[in-house]
Amino acid sequence: MPDNSTEQSKCRIVVDAMGGDFAPQNAVVGAVEALKLNPDFELFLVGRKAEIISVLQKNNLSFDENFIVNAEQVIEMGESPTNAIKAKPDSSIVVGAKLVRENKVDAFVSAGNTGAMMSASTLIIGRIPGVGRPTIGAEVPNIHGTCYLYDVGAGKDAKPIHLVEYAIMGSIYAKEMGGVANPTVGVLSMGEEEGKGNEVANEAYNLLKKSRLNFIGNVEGRDILTGKVDVVVCDGFVGNIILKFGEAVPKLLKHLLEQTAKKNILDALKIVLVKSTLRKALKSLDYQEHGGVPLLGVNGISIIGHGSSTPKAITNMVLKAKLMYERQLVDKIEKSIKEYSN
Amino acid sequence: MPDNSTEQSKCRIVVDAMGGDFAPQNAVVGAVEALKLNPDFELFLVGRKAEIISVLQKNNLSFDENFIVNAEQVIEMGESPTNAIKAKPDSSIVVGAKLVRENKVDAFVSAGNTGAMMSASTLIIGRIPGVGRPTIGAEVPNIHGTCYLYDVGAGKDAKPIHLVEYAIMGSIYAKEMGGVANPTVGVLSMGEEEGKGNEVANEAYNLLKKSRLNFIGNVEGRDILTGKVDVVVCDGFVGNIILKFGEAVPKLLKHLLEQTAKKNILDALKIVLVKSTLRKALKSLDYQEHGGVPLLGVNGISIIGHGSSTPKAITNMVLKAKLMYERQLVDKIEKSIKEYSN
User: Cis (ω within 30 of 0) for the bond into B3?
Assistant: First the structure.
């Protein structure tokens, strides 16, 4: 790859060509599409060079081979993350993370093994000084726009201070990436009153009350969707369960509509008629639209996608990485974490 | 009230006439409607007798005044539960719970202050021997029917043994009330593999593996909706958040449809046309259809409704209480808890 570690200002993004259930096809096609849409960054592809070239040719895509970084190994979706990143030093995930650590690129995007991507990002790229635990957030569409929910799976059994870190990082993300001026922050709880959380949530409440964040207190499960609050923090165990529950909602709706259609021919006809409209309405619930989720708190940009990512999802992940770079997310998080500690 | 504490076999249900945002109107009308639909039980109304009679007259309902149990005090929706049940011994909730404890009725139904209803049920009616913590469940509609989710708010910071109790009680409920032959049980977790839970979930996993329940291991948030499992257990903190998140989903859908309608006149017309069909499809998501939720593990039948319960919701709660009585839920739970302990 070209040595551009000095004097660069253009964002440099490496995409894991081998990551995802439909790799290298979807990853390569989606990444190159992002470059077509927005040529103002440098795109690298990491993975088996021969396979990448084959996909490029098959899809009639022109791409400078100098920007392909060869990595012969592949971490499969089912592999144990920590073992895999040790056992496969020449895997696309390990090589990609190293490119960020060595400042050869600014961002790493992968739809591969989520756990391996988290481990590689945390262990190889490393954490931002002062961050105890990096976090994965979800951008949940709601009645007023978006709720930024942290943590949805980077860590379970979080300590209260971790929830504060999530709140700091989530507020920056909501402001810089979501354009929310002074994001409100709530602790996910069983009721609005103080003391309505579990032990961790209640202690996080006390810490957040003393912080400089725009803290509004406890919020409930419904408030993720009602738009009462911009940033919601919770233990990764809770957030992950909500996220996966929410992802299954469109499937349930589809099922309920099918059941209704079966019972009555008129309803069936109406449902056929309205299908495209419903699809439009539910578009914002489709995670493919959002691309992947960034792992905040690592010392570089790391975006993790769904294993089933489509080319479009990959494209969106790349463009998100670019925006995070332009908005200087990593530097801003480092500064805010430092301010909180002092 | 008539003394029927001996030689009874007919189910006796007392409804809190003062419970809920629209009491006594909705509670009285809904309760009497249940009796009309199914006269094969004894209905009592507890609350301010004069107000109850006024509602009966206003709605042209005939009801034997001997079955009205006077209670002059009312626990308001916002009151602190534990204080309220001490400070208001002549409240409908306290008097109703005492009727169960004294075996003057078999079941108590209220849409009043949820916390007060839980406290009164646990402290006055008392727990079934061997039950460490009673539980409130949710019946979540899903692709294969219903998922029985415990606990959704009776207690937070549950211990692993509490999750086992929830699994025992939930399995009985799913079998007796839902007609599920040999209900599968899962522990809510971040992944399917063993060890994917937090500390409490992982320990509950170990206990459930050794139990006689039809335990299938860890399940994820999506499995509540995919129908992979009949009974799902979790800490009340997690369950309550999911429940409230789920309750807000129809509102989000409404909003998304409205937004789509605003953008395009054809979509707007289609949405108007399909409205009644959508309402049919989403009917099962409406908690009013399900009536209230039983507090399992107390030594009697206690059903707690939403504050905003309609008369229909009250009717459904009463009929649910009757079915729980006929299926001998309390006895069966006592027996199973005893078997587990031995």
Answer: no
B50 part of contact set with chain A, CB < 8 Å: no
CB contact (8 A) between residue B257 and residue A197: no
Residue pair B12/B4 in contact (Cβ under 8 Å)? The answer is yes
Look up the CATH superfamily of B135-246: Isopropylmalate Dehydrogenase (3.40.718.10)
Report pLDDT for A294: 94
Q: Work out whether strand A42-47 and strand A68-70 pair parallel, antiparallel, or are unpaired.
A: parallel
Q: How confident is the model at residue A8 (pLDDT cuts 50, 70, 90)?
A: low
**ipTM topping 0.90:** no
Residue B122 backbone zone (phi > 0: left; psi -120 to 50: alpha; other: beta): alpha
Chain A residues within 8 A of B234 when measuring between CB atoms: 241
Element (H, E) at A118: helix A114-120
Q: Which CATH class is domain B12-131+287-327?
A: alpha beta
Give the per-residue pLDDT at B288. 56
Q: Which residue has the higher pLDDT, B155 or A294?
A: A294
CATH, range A12-126+287-329: 3.40.718.10
Domain extent listing, chain B: 12-131+287-327, 135-246, 249-282
Banded pLDDT at B218 (limits 50, 70, 90): very high
Chain B: closest CA distance from residue A104 (Å): 34
